[in-house]
Structure formats: structure tokens, C-alpha cells
Amino acid sequence: MQSTSETTIAPPGARPAATAPPPARVKLLTTSVSSRTAWLLRALSILGPLAAWWALSAGGVVDPTFLPSPSAVWTAGVTMAQSGDLPSDLLASLGRIGAGFGLAVLISVPVGFAMGTLGWAQPLFEPVIGILRYLPASAFIPLLIIWLGIGEPSKIALLVLGVVFFNTLMTADAVRQVPYRLLEVSATLGASRLRVASRVVLPYALPGIIDAMRVNAAAAWNFVVVAELVAATSGLGYRITRAQRFLQTDRIFAILVVIGLIGLTIDIALRLLRSRVGRWTR
Q1: What are phi and psi of 202, to 5 degrees?
Q2: d(C-alpha 243, C-alpha 251), whole Å
Q3: pLDDT tens-digit profile of 138-174?
Q4: Exposed e or buried b for every residue in 95-109, given b needs 16+ CB within 10 A?
Q5: DSSP code at position 235
Q6: Cα separation of 243 and 17, whole Å?
Q7: Predicted confidence band at 5 (pLDDT cuts at 50, 70, 90)?
Q8: Phi and psi dihedrals of 105, rounded to 5?
Q9: Taking a C-beta distance cutoff of 8 angstroms, is the pair 157, 148 a contact?
Q10: Which of 150, 267, 146, 147 minimizes the C-alpha distance to 217?
Q11: Which partner for 112 in 46, 172, 177, 193 could form a disulfide, CB atoms 3.0-4.6 Å apart?
């Protein structure tokens, strides 16, 4: 009986049929590097611009009046610190930051939390906040001086206006990121709305709320310097204006370095706070 299946035998000396190449390995994107690489990149991020700054000033490419050398900036900073001007101005600016940014957070976090959790709060607050956030806070300076004078209240009010609207919307967005299934499970287990808000929504949204504060803390520093440039007798912005009148660019650079270091310290502190309260997100 003849078999229905036939086996083809290759003739002697014939090359075997080419096989398909194995599929290429896909390299996945990664968001992490080794600890050593991370520290090297951090050092490069700081030392690279410093080296470029030193090269430009040492090579005489730019007039020292416009770009002082790092050593001249260091000397100017030490001189202002020893005279007491820099510490007093720094304390004045930090006091305004604490009052203005703190008040903005006290207003924006509850309102943003309500917008993210209560059905009536979003249509009530979002339209007016959406309009006001596009108005430049610095444009309110003349009105604030007319309404509140040239003292501390107008400066603190400018900080509040510059931060409160953006922080409110970013807080509301963080609250809306809470998965709906968590809310369903909590309601199924019999938790009240207040308990769900305090035990489920707030812990889940808190890291995002702190991230919003990190972003808007930088904006607060910008606005405090703007506020001190107008009708002020103390603060880092006031000291910059004084130095500008006499072309003391080394002092201006020294103050800018101080502002950057203080801002970085605040950012690191908020990052540590976020990592502590949001350990479950890792």
C-alpha cells in the first residue's frame, strides 16, 4: 500500500534551506540608572555650567562688568554676608515666602480637594479660577499698592495671587487621580463619605498635592523678587535693585546664587516629605 505522504530528500551537496532570523530583542525604556551614574550626572549638571562660566570670564570673552568671574561673585557674597545685608534681606524674603505661600496653600488645598471630590464644587469654582489664573499676578501690583499700600500686605497678596489659582487646579487634578474602584470598595464596606475622603482619597492624593506645592514654590520665589523690586526697603529683590543702580553685577550674581540654593533646599525638603508620605507609590 502506497503512503499518501511523501518525504522529500535533498540531493547530495545541496545547501540546507535558510531559516528565518530570530526576532530582534526589544530594548525597553528605563527611568532609572545606577546610583554611581546618577551622582556622576548630578555632578556634571553643576560642574559643567560652572566650568563654562569660569572659561568665559577667565578668557576675557565677556566684559567682567556684565559677567563677573566666580571668584568675584564669591567675594561679593562673603562681603554682603559679613556686613549683615545678605542675612537680613534673606530673612525678609523668607518671611514673605512663608506668609504668602503658606496662605496660598491653606486656601488652595481645601478648595482643590473639594473640586476633586464634590460634584458641585468643580462647576462652581473652576470657571472663575480658569479665568483668573491667566491674569498676570504682576499686573495687580498697582492695584495692590492702591488697595493695601506699599507695606507687607501688598507683597504677601501678590504671592497669594501668583500661587493660589495654579495650586488649586493642580490639587484638584491630583485628587481626581484616585481610582474609582477604591471608592467603590470603600462604599461597599460601609465607609461614610467623610471616612472615604479622609482615609482613602487624602492619603492617595497627598503625594500629588506635595508635587504641586514643589512646582508652585518656585513660582512663589519669582513673585517675591518681583514684589521686592517695587517699593521695598528689604529683601533679596530690593538688594538686586540696589546693586543694579551701581552696576554691581557681582552682587547680583551672588544674590541669584543664594536664591537658587534656597530654592533647591526647599525642593529637596518637599521631595523628602513626598517620599515619606508616599512610600506606597514606589
Answers
A1: -65, -50
A2: 6
A3: 889 889 989 998 889 999 999 999 999 999 999 999 9
A4: ebbebbbebbbebbb
A5: S
A6: 81
A7: very low
A8: -65, -40
A9: yes
A10: 267
A11: 172
pLDDT: which is higher, 251 or 278: 251
**Location of C-alpha cell 508620605:** 277
Taking phi first (over 0 means left), then psi (-120 to 50 degrees means alpha), and beta for anything else, what does residue 26 get?
Answer: beta
pTM of the model: 0.81
In this structure, which amino acid lies at residue 141?
I
**The three grid cell numbers given for residue 26, joined into one nine-digit string:** 526589544
How does pLDDT run across 96-111, given as a tens digit for each residue? 999 999 999 999 999 9
Contact call for residues 137 and 101 (beta carbons, < 8 A): no
Residue recorded with cell 533646599:
265
For 198, other C-beta atoms within 10 Å of its C-beta total 12
